[in-house]
């Protein structure tokens, strides 16, 4: 795990916690509370996976997709006039940007190929 992965995963995990807590402190509908709680939990789970994964590239991609879904959720769930909508828009946009940036960074550093080579070498060393 590099410092970049640690920073992106930790910051997204914090944003997931803020999104989950919006159902308790924001004035919203039951649909808004459910969507922010659900998407916040999903973001937190993916962020935790990205922190413990050898190759977090797919997790970062998933986080950017979940961030986009969270950003769109107030319009789809019809709670765009509520307090939780601002949390969904702001946190969703930040999650999407940080997750997308981490994904692009992983792709440019060819993290997937390095993890595959490392896993193959570890496996071959263990069977000898």
TrEMBL record:
Please report a single Pfam family linked to this protein.
SPW
Name the InterPro entries on file: SPW
Keyword tags: Membrane, Transmembrane, Transmembrane helix
Where do the SPW repeat-containing integral membrane domain residues begin and end? 11-99
Spans traversing the lipid bilayer: 7-25, 31-49, 61-80, 86-104
Q: Which superkingdom?
A: Bacteria
Its recorded name reads: SPW repeat protein
- Which organism does this record belong to? Rhodococcus tibetensis
What lineage, starting at the top, does this entry show?
A: Bacteria, Bacillati, Actinomycetota, Actinomycetes, Mycobacteriales
């Amino acid at each position: 795990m590099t410092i970049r992965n640690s920073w992106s995963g930790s910051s997204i995990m914090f944003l997931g916690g803020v999104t989950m807590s919006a159902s308790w402190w924001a004035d919203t509908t039951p649909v808004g509370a459910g969507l922010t709680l659900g998407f916040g939990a999903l973001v937190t789970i993916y962020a935790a996976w990205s922190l413990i994964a050898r190759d977090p590239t797919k997790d970062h991609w998933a986080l950017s997709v979940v961030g986009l879904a969270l950003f769109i959720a107030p319009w789809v769930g019809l709670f765009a006039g509520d307090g939780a909508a601002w949390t969904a828009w702001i946190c969703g946009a930040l999650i999407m940007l940080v997750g997308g940036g981490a994904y692009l960074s992983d792709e440019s550093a060819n993290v997937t190929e390095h993890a595959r080579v490392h896993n193959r070498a570890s496996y071959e060393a263990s069977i000898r």
